[in-house]
Amino acid sequence: MPTSKRDKKVSLTKTANKGLELKQNLIEEFQNYVGTCKYLFIIFSMANMRNSKLKDI
């Protein structure tokens, strides 16, 4: 009997995950700069901010 074509899983994304390690390094850099600098200007844009730690920043 042939295999059914309905049961195939097709992922529609081609992007790779950035991972938790990258996000942790980003937060550590922010914390280091806050402790060492008198004035700090952070200019960045994030799309779909789902991480609560990044939302707090």
From TrEMBL:
InterPro entries from the entry? Ribosome_Assembly_uL10
- List the GO terms this entry assigns under cellular component, sorted alphabetically: nucleolus; preribosome, large subunit precursor
Which molecular function terms from Gene Ontology are attached?
RNA binding
From the UniProt record, give one GO term of the biological process aspect.
nuclear-transcribed mRNA catabolic process
Q: Which domain of life is it from?
A: Eukaryota
Question: What is the protein name stated in its UniProt record?
Answer: mRNA turnover protein 4-like
Organism from which the protein derives: Cricetulus griseus
